[in-house]
């Protein structure tokens, strides 16, 4: 097991090494423009920002908003998805809401969020929750619908009540779908927080991108992009670990 993990980590390191190598070759041989710097100057600029504490502040600000909105959206989406998947009357009532709002992207709601909540933290948390909730609802409802009827009948034959069937059969079998939906929603959260911080924010990686664009600080732009990519990768690996740890026995696909 330990050897497998070491091999996996080595593979990740090699993959990122190849990525930076391709970036370096593209910047030094194909493009050769100040608007597309090679990784060397970008990493040097990142180190300066880290020493000054600036990059950490922007990362913490963005992650705090993502975490708050993501947890709020998941806390709403999981029970609603369970209800939609379990009860037809609830499905008939709430599916139109879900299908209507999920096709309105969170980016389109930025103006509304700023009007309702101002440019403070509430608008960012609302947007992250908005972009999270519908993905989690759909994935959770799909998980409930995918529960094998034979398992439910077997539990009923053993004398299980409806509550016991839900708690001991349907809910555990839905966990992989819930975690997968949350994993997909997290990528949307990163997209949304950058867009929200571009429009109205005093800090965060989106604000860093915006300020760097205004002052043509190209290295700062790429530092923010690299930070977003690495944070997204780390977050996705965390979700894969959680799926394997808590849902692997239910044959989750990761």
Task: Please tell me about this protein's structure.
Keywords: Cell membrane, Membrane, Transmembrane, Transmembrane helix, Transport. The chain crosses the membrane at residues 7-26, 70-88, 100-119, 125-147, 168-194, 214-234. It is found in: Cell membrane. This protein is an all-alpha fold. It folds into two domains: 1-36; 50-146 and 176-250, MetI-like fold. The protein has helices at 2-31, 39-52, 54-86, 88-102, 110-117, 121-145, 149-157, 162-199, 205-214, 218-247. Helix 5 (110-117) packs across helix 6. The mean pLDDT is 85.
Features:
MetI-like fold; transmembrane; 2 domains; MetI-like; 0% strand; MetI-like_sf; transport; transmembrane helix; mainly alpha
């Amino acid at each position: 097991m330990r050897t497998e993990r070491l091999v996996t980590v080595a593979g990740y390191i090699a993959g990122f090494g190849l990525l930076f190598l391709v970036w370096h070759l593209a910047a030094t041989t194909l493009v050769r423009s100040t608007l597309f710097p090679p990784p060397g100057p970008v990493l040097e600029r990142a180190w300066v920002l880290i020493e000054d504490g600036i990059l950490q502040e922007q990362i913490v600000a963005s992650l705090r908003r993502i975490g708050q909105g993501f947890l709020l959206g998941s806390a709403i989406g999981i029970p609603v998805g369970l209800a939609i998947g379990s009860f037809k009357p609830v499905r008939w009532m709430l599916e139109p809401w879900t299908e209507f709002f999920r096709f309105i992207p969170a980016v389109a709601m930025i103006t509304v969020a700023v009007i309702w909540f101002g440019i403070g933290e509430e608008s960012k948390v609302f947007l992250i929750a908005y972009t999270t909730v519908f993905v989690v609802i759909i994935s959770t409802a799909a998980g409930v619908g995918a529960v094998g009827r034979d398992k439910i009948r077997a539990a009923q034959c053993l004398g299980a009540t409806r509550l016991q069937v839900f708690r001991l059969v349907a809910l555990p079998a839905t966990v992989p779908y819930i975690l997968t939906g949350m994993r997909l929603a997290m990528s949307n959260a990163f997209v949304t927080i950058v867009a929200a911080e571009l429009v109205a924010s005093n800090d965060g990686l989106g604000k860093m991108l915006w300020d760097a664009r205004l002052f043509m600080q190209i290295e700062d732009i790429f530092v923010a992009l690299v930070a977003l990519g690495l944070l997204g990768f780390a977050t996705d690996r965390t979700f894969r670990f959680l799926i394997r740890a808590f849902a692997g026995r239910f044959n989750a696909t990761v």
